[in-house]
Write a structure and sequence with these properties.
By secondary structure, this protein is an alpha/beta fold. The protein is 26% helix and 27% strand. The chain contains 18 helices and 33 strands. An eight-stranded parallel β-sheet has the order 14-9-8-19-18-17-16-15. A seven-stranded mixed β-sheet has the order 1-7-5-6-4-2-3, covered by helices on one side. Helix 8 crosses helix 10. 48% of the residues are buried. The N terminus is likely disordered. The structure holds acetamide (ACM) and zinc ion.
């Protein structure tokens, strides 16, 4: 009996878990199915007597029509959907009652009605038969701040595309658009009082290299790339967003990330800066340390005048004033900045930044506005109230500051919510920076950590997905990085704490993607691609394959043929003993979902053998003997890296073996601060104690700092030896030399494979 009860209970819970999410995104707080159903009429009519709800309904109806629902506003008597306000509901909260005689929506405000219509829209689109089950949905967001950031400086996103993103984001119930309008790479807002900001600051020289490999402009070089938005275009966009319940928060960067402004008005940099300042096409090297002079009152007059126009265009309560990554190099030497430090009794240049941000913050307060800054603003101990955006690492800086000073904060940690990062196995992705933030990383992100107090949790305003655009060249590139991760983000920002359910999300996402297709929005299918881990064990190599989608089959071949739906199913690690090409892909319902992963195993005497080393920086020593070569991406998980130091590692061949050749795979890509070693020495030993030098090989300097990624096999030539242990000592090439885009930056050493025969 007890067993039967448990089975019944489990079955009921499973059923209600499926019913609860209503198949829509974001996941609603509750959806309870009731008896009965209603057929959706061919013409969906919406009625309300409230003017604000009417405006919200008109826009939602327009959006529904673009998705193929014939929908319009009508008089209340015959309407399929009736909207009304309910004072008992909070802002953004709504209730939908699907009844046999129609759909009743009540909401706390117009935003709630808008969101309810988008929930209903999805239920209509999901209903295969055109019949809705009766039931009641009650819903409200977890966070008020559900933000997306678009960096329009690195890539000048055409206004049409900004609006398109706003339109799609609004349907995902995103509530804020943070517009990163200014940076070193372009000033994007017309400022009537300072025309050079756009005549000069909006344009940079064209360079063909990837962003970090671009050399700084020379005086007189023609700047042809860029653009800017006029006041009218921005006002129109703000109105468009407001109609969709998105508040646009402009960001004007200071004191750093301001090269575009300083290219236009170089007198606002510290007077000790005597070199040419041009809008940067890339990272900028040493030029990126040029910032506004904090000792010059003209700087503050200029920024205040700029902000006057920003406030005229953007009605939002909050203005983002940047504050991140400000080098103190020039402030430490500038007589004006040093005088300011003395006059204001500040401890150092860090506190000078606190003074800078406070002074601008007070100006904004005097105009009835509030300030937001990146988490570095906390270093300068600002006295004024400022909302902090936690971005570094896991955003803990913001949490520390907020808890100490009682400030509101928003979490946009780079390691979870920066959409510039790779969204899937890197071999299949366009080049970008850093590691991975997959769809499932974004979906499963929980900002509130176990060690936060209730008071700190109260200060969390919300979350933001931030899109930096260094590697974007077209609207399609922007959409590829945004989607589908923005869908996962929207779900996370809205749903109740502790209600994440990846499996539910997978099926709701599958419901949602046809909407993107109807709108022609580009999205990534990276979620279907396979990760691999090939690791040596006892002289052989074991391969594991995994996919973030858990509702697909992984099938593989080992004969070089393309995997098909009838190929063997991957269920457990595969052991590779000889040179083999393994091909694998994911399948569902007989169709291939993702790209074909090809692993060419080159098994040699070192394959599967034990490695000992002084710890690397990324902990991937095992790749040296896994029989697989890396791609030309140092972060593809097939390269072990040591930063700014000598690398030393030893392979244990298991027993004394004859050795006729040795090679070590290394990488050169100075653009990403990767340099091949200056020299590598190979030593041999039979007891792992006494080693004798076999040979040292030096690498040509040009090759070491190659601008284009280059795999360099360091070949020790013909060897006539026998040994059990082979030790490698690789000397770092030091900082990137003059004449390269990353001049002066310390370098990484990366190795992918030891090849011993
Ligand atoms: C930032 O990523 N520098 C805010
Ligand atoms: Zn100065």
């Amino acid at each position: 009996m007890r067993k039967l009860f448990v089975i019944l209970f489990t079955a009921i819970t499973a059923l209600s878990a499926i019913a609860d999410d209503a198949g829509i995104i974001p996941q609603p707080a509750s959806w309870c199915v009731a008896p009965g159903s209603i057929r959706v009429p061919e013409k969906v009519t919406i009625a309300t007597t409230d003017k604000h709800l009417c405006d919200a309904a008109s826009v939602a109806a327009l959006q529904m029509r673009t998705l193929g629902i014939d929908c319009k506003l009508s008089s209340p008597d015959k309407a399929f959907v009736r909207l009304s306000l309910d004072k008992g509901l909070s802002a953004e909260q709504y209730r939908i009652r699907v009844q046999p005689d129609g759909v009743k929506i009540s909401s706390g405000d117009a935003a709630g009605a808008f969101y309810a219509l988008h929930s209903l829209k999805q239920m209509i689109l999901n209903s295969q038969t055109g019949v809705l089950s009766c039931g009641e949905m009650t819903d409200k967001p977890r966070f008020e701040y559900r933000g997306i950031m678009l960096d329009v400086s690195r890539y000048f996103i055409p206004m049409e595309e900004v609006k398109r993103v706003i339109d799609v984001a609004s349907q995902l119930k995103i509530s804020k658009l943070h517009l990163h309008l200014t940076d070193d790479n372009g000033w994007r807002m017309e400022i009537k009082r300072y025309p050079l900001l756009t005549d000069v600051g909006a344009w940079r020289v064209a360079r063909n290299e990837i962003f970090p490999g671009r050399m700084n402009p020379l005086p007189g070089e023609k700047a042809t790339e860029g653009g800017f938005y006029t006041h009218n275009e921005l006002k129109d966009m703000v109105k468009y967003a407001a109609e969709r319940f998105i508040d646009v928060i402009p960001e004007i960067e200071m004191p750093a990330h301001s090269i575009a402004a300083l290219a236009a008005y170089p007198n606002l940099a510290c007077p000790i800066v005597d070199k040419f300042i041009g809008v940067l096409p890339g990272i900028g090297g040493k030029n990126a340390s040029i910032v506004f002079c904090a000792g010059n009152d003209d700087t503050f007059t200029f920024i205040e005048n700029v902000l006057d126009e920003v406030l005229e265009v953007f009605p939002s309560e909050y203005i983002h004033i940047g504050g991140d990554e400000a080098s103190k190099e020039h402030w430490n030497q500038c007589p004006l900045c040093q005088k300011r430090i003395a006059d204001e009794h500040l401890a150092d240049s860090e506190e000078l930044q606190g003074y800078f941000m406070d002074r601008i913050n007070r100006y904004l307060q005097s105009k009835g506005r509030k300030s937001i800054g990146w988490d570095e603003v906390s270093y300068g101990k600002p006295k004024e109230d400022i909302v902090v955006f936690g971005w570094q690492g896991m955003g803990t800086n913001a949490v520390d500051f907020a808890s100490k000073c009682g400030r509101r904060f928003v979490m946009t940690p780079a390691r979870k919510l920066y959409l510039i990062r790779y969204q899937g196995p890197q071999w299949f992705e366009p080049l970008t920076y850093f590691g991975d933030n997959t769809l499932s990383d974004v979906y499963s992100y929980e900002p509130v950590q176990a060690d936060w107090s209730a008071a700190v949790e109260q200060l969390l305003w919300g979350v933001q997905a931030s899109l930096w655009t260094e590697f974007c060249h077209s609207p399609e590139d922007v959409e590829y990085l945004l989607f589908p991760r923005l869908i996962a983000f929207a779900d996370m920002a809205w749903r109740g704490k502790g209600t994440a359910d990846w499996h539910s999300f997978e099926h709701r996402l599958d419901n949602y993607l046809p909407q993107l297709e109807k709108l022609g929005v580009t999205y990534a299918r990276s979620m279907y691609n396979l990760y691999h881990k090939a690791k040596g064990a006892d002289g052989s190599v074991k391969v594991d394959l995994s996919c973030i989608r858990d509702d697909v089959d992984t099938r593989f071949t080992a004969d070089g043929s393309e995997p098909v739906a009838s190929s063997p199913l991957f269920t457990e690690s595969i052991t590779i003993a000889h040179g083999t090409t393994l091909k694998a892909a994911t399948f569902r319902a007989g169709k291939r979902c993702g790209e074909v992963l090809t692993l060419n195993f080159g098994i040699n005497s070192a394959s599967g053998c034990q490695i000992t080393s002084e710890s690397s920086n990324n902990g991937l020593e095992y790749v040296l003997t896994n029989g697989l070569r890396g791609s030309n991406r140092n972060s593809d998980s097939e390269w072990v890296g040591w930063h700014n130091r000598t690398a030393e590692f030893t392979v244990d061949l298991g027993c004394v073996k004859p050795i006729s050749s040795i090679a070590l795979g290394s990488l050169a890509n100075s653009t990403l601060c990767v340099a091949a070693p200056a020299v590598v020495s190979a030593y041999v030993s039979n007891d792992n104690k006494v080693f004798s030098l076999l040979k040292s090989v030096a690498v040509d300097k040009e090759a070491r700092f190659s601008i284009n990624p280059r795999i360099l096999d360091i070949d020790f030539g013909k060897i006539n030896a026998s040994a059990r242990y082979v030790k490698f000592v690789a000397v770092n090439s030091g900082c990137i030399p003059e004449g390269y885009a990353r001049e002066g930056a310390p370098t990484w050493l990366y190795f992918d494979e030891i090849i011993i025969n």
